[in-house]
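dumping this here before i forget
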Amino acid sequence: MGRVSSRPTSRRHLEAVPDLDPPSPAPQGPAPKNPAPKNPRRGRQPEPGLFDLPEPSPAPPGTGQPAIPEHVSAAEVRRVLADMGAPADLQEAVAEFGDDMPALSTWLQEIGALGDPADVLNPMLGQWADLLERGVRAIEAEVCTGEFLHAYGQAAGSENSLIGSMELLIEEAAATRTREALAMCRCLAHLGPAEIRATAARAGHELTRYGIKDMPWVKDLGRAEFVDAFGYGDDRGLQESLVLEFRHGRRGHAFVVLIDHRLGGGIKDLFATDDPDELRRDVQFESMLEGVEVTPHSPAEASARLHAALDAPVCADDPEQVQDVGIHLPILLDRLPLLPAPPADARPRAAGRAATAAIRRASARRGRPEPKQKPARSPDRRAPVAPTSVHRIKVTLAGSKPPIWRRLEVPSSTTLMRLHEIIQATFDWHDSHLWMFETSDVVFGVGELGVPHRNARRVRIGQVAPAEGDTLRYVYDFGDDWNHRIVVEAVADAESEGRYPRCLNGRRSAPPEDCGGIWGYAELVESLADKTHPEHADRLEWLGLDSAREFDPARFDAAAANARLAPMAGRRR
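structure:
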C-alpha cells in the first residue's frame, strides 16, 4: 500500500481495516517501554560504556577519552545518570565525589564510563543516511524524523535530558560537516521539540555555508497541503478509521488514524502511506468483501473527528501500536493547522473537552509550547489602524538576467521584519535561511547573524527609506547570497478601501532555494532547457518534476502572489 514505515507487507491489510478483535483490558500503570524502531538503520543505538562499571584502568594521555564540559556541575551529572536509569552502584560512587567535579570527571574517564563520543555520534548520523538516496520524498524524511524522536525520547528519559542532549548532539553533528548532519538538522528544525528548532536551523544554515547542499526533499518540509478525507468502520460503530490525504506538490500521502470507541474514542493506531490511491482501492475492495461502510468527510468533519480523538487518551494496546502512534503523531500534529478548527457543536460524540484542550495536550506530548491565550483587546484596539501612507517599492534580484522583480505597495509603518515576510511571500520562498537588510551604514536583522545589527522588528521602512528614490539592500540566504535592491518609487496616501500589502506586478519566477545562487540558477535553467545535458535528469529529480515543461522561469502570477499576501493584509507588527 505504499506504507512509509516498515511494518511487514503481509500485515498492511490489517491496518487499512479496523481490527474487530475484542479489546485488551485497559492497561494499568505506566505505559510499557517501546521497542526500537523497525528500521535497524534508524533505531536507537547503544551507548558503549555508559552504564558499565569496570575495574579502573587508567587511560593513557591522548587516547581521546572525552572530558565533561566545564560548565556541567556534579549535580547535573547525578541527575542525568538518575534520569537514564544508571545502576545504583554507579550513582552511589558518583555521589561520593560530592561537588569535586575535576576528580569526578577524571574518574569517569578512567573507568571508561564516558565512552568515545564517536561511538555514539557516528551511529546516530548513520540513521539519516537513507535520506541521502535519490528519490527520497519529504514524507519519508518526516517518518524517519518521527522514528528518531521516538527512540531518542525513550532513551533520554526526562524532558530536560532530552532537550539538553539533543542540543549537544546537534552541535557535535554540525562539527562533522557531513550531508547526514545537514539532513538531521533540517528534519529537527521542522519536527523537533520547539526548544531545539532554532538551534537546528542555525546549524543547518552553517553547514550550507561550507558548501553542503540540501537534498530535494528539504524544499517540501512544512509545505504540505490538505487534499481530502474519508472514513470507514464497522457497522456497530465500535471502531473507525479516519483517512487524511495531503500532498507535497503533486505527490500525495495519507495518514490512517484508527479510533477505538470501545476504549474511550482515542487513537489506537496511526500510520502513513505514500500511495493514497492504492489505499483507496484497498478500502473499496474490503468494502465489497466485508461490507465496510466508506464515508466521505468534509474538511470540517474530518477536523472534528480528529480533534475528538486527540481529546481522548491514546488507547494503543500493544507495543507496536504504541510505537506507531509515537512515531507518526508529531507529523500529524504538524498537519493539524491545515484543517479548520471545528466548532463545538460540530464535534462527534459530544463527550470530550474543547478542541483547544486537545491541541494543548497534544502539543505538550510533542514538546511544543502551549498556544498562548490572547488577552482581550480594549475597545479602542479592536481592529488594526488603517495605514495613512504607503510606500511603493520595487524589489529586484541583483544579477538576474532577464531581471526578476516585484513591485509592491506596503504601509509606511511596515517593520523590516514584516517586509522580509512580504518579500518571501511574493518570491514564493520558504523563509528557511538567515537574512538581513542593509542601508549605507547600518545592518538590520533578528537573531544571530554574525555581524552587529539592529532589531528589524523595531525599525520601519518609513524610517530607513522615508522618501522617493531611497534604497536599501535585502540579503537572503548567506550561502546562496540572494541580494535584492529595494528602491522606493513613491510615497503616497493610502487608499481608503485599499488592503495592504499588495503586489502590483512583477516579472519572472524566483529561483528555487538552495540552487547555488544566481550563477547556480543560470546553470539550472541551462540544464533543464537541454534534454541532452548530463545533469538534465538529476535537476528534474531535484526539483521533483516529471518534465522540463513544468519548469517555466518566465512565469509570474500576480494573483498567486497576492493570495500569499492576503493573510498579512490589515495586520501590524
